[in-house]
Write a structure and sequence with these properties.
With about 525 residues, this protein is an alpha+beta fold.
Length: about 525
Amino acid sequence: MRATYKMFLGLLLISGLLLFLFRTWSPGTSSGVDIRTRQGGEIQELLGGKIQDTISDYHDISYHIKDDVARLVLAQNTCLCRADKETFQLPFSNLLFPRVWAHNIELAFLESHSDPMGVTHHRAQEYSRFQKRSYNPADLLIVAEANNPLQYPTQGVEVRPLKTIIIPGLGLKKETGSSHTVYLTATLGTFDVAATVDSVSIKGEGEKHMILSSPLLSALNRQLQFVTYTNTVFHPKTADTVQFSTDVHQSFFTIKVGHGAIPKLYNSGYQGEYNISALVTIATKTFLRYDKLKDLIDSIRQYYPTVTIVIADDNEHPESVPGPHIEHYIMPFGKGWFAGRNLAVSQVTTKYVLWVDDDFLFTANTKVERMVDILEKTTLDLVGGAVREVTGYTATYRHTISVEEGGEEGDCLHIRDGYHHGIEGFTNCVVADAVINFFLGRTDKVQQVGFNPRLARHGHLEFFIDALGSLHIGSCSDVIVSHASKIILPWGKTDSQKAYDKFRYSSSSADNDIHKEDFYFKNRFKCMTSH
């Protein structure tokens, strides 16, 4: 008996040591990576200088503006709030000859606002942050200087659908001979010139194929600085592959065609310290646990008395959830977990949404300001916290997710415990692909990914799998929410708790089939590996 007891103590000691090592070590590098919002930097300045030098070449060669083409190019950088003039008034004239109307949104909004200068400054700050978050180095204009000897832009050229731009960076260098000729060919647009240069012959203006030639290389290069591209096939997001060649050499580059991203800014009124009530809405889903929900709300109000709480409720017999700053939405009975998440998140109007389960409890360690701070200062779209159980164990539930191409049969999904790297400037925070069920996210980004409403009883990682490639995700272990005790003796369970367990922990074949179908068909996976 004593030997068995000693063996038990030994196993307990080893288990504790392994648990400690597991919690203090996880995949990823120990050093932090700087993911603060920023644009360009030294590389952008260097490229900008080189492009400016390219544009300024041949400035001493004269040219003649083509007004009809130049007007299209110049119109891309400005917009006017201008309505059609009313020429005559007849019955039904607006139906026969519809006029363009104009509404000055800026004037209409600011003239009735109590602090027009403050809100203008705040909007500028928000737009600056949006630009930094949406900045992509692949959009930066880069010109390949002539090595073959064609010079052309390798990336960063974009045109709005059915609009016109000047193609930057075209050139022909170090060519010998008495005549110099280049060819331009496109498929989704046409070429023209915004100005003409003497001694340059142009064929194919306004067409998909244009030829430019001149006995003077300098004149040809000056002419190439005025070449325009007009998109002629409407598509909201595509690209045209342009061929740029001589009789001997050829090169290809792409012109992206698409609408620009419309900013989605939130007027939170934030000027100095974070106003959590204006920045954050707390969302939850409840089912058969009104007692837990009440405890959650009471704990939130202890620290955040004016933050809006949005509740999605699919109980068969809904009860009232009274209190200020509470929005209670009733769903069809048993509609499900992810459907409730969709409903709750769809009603959020603040910049950030904080997701909590209805059996969580806020404590002094539930610092929402900490989560807001990291989202405001980095490129992260969502940051998870940690959940502390009544046993004292604190879980962060961090995972990395990757997809490996698998051919015709489908791809392979790989899920691993751990994270990618730490975050410079934010101790206890890391970058991962999936986090625990307590997270703060940018509302528009969470809504963009959405939650699969077919997942009624089980689901968590599925949201982060759908978000792979769309959301930049972090996790901070020092923002902690408590979990209400799940330790209930069988004879102490209420009828409501028994009903909840029946729904929550059912493992019907129908539910399993939905998960299999979603992974196989919707996500096109043939295999999944995980820790």
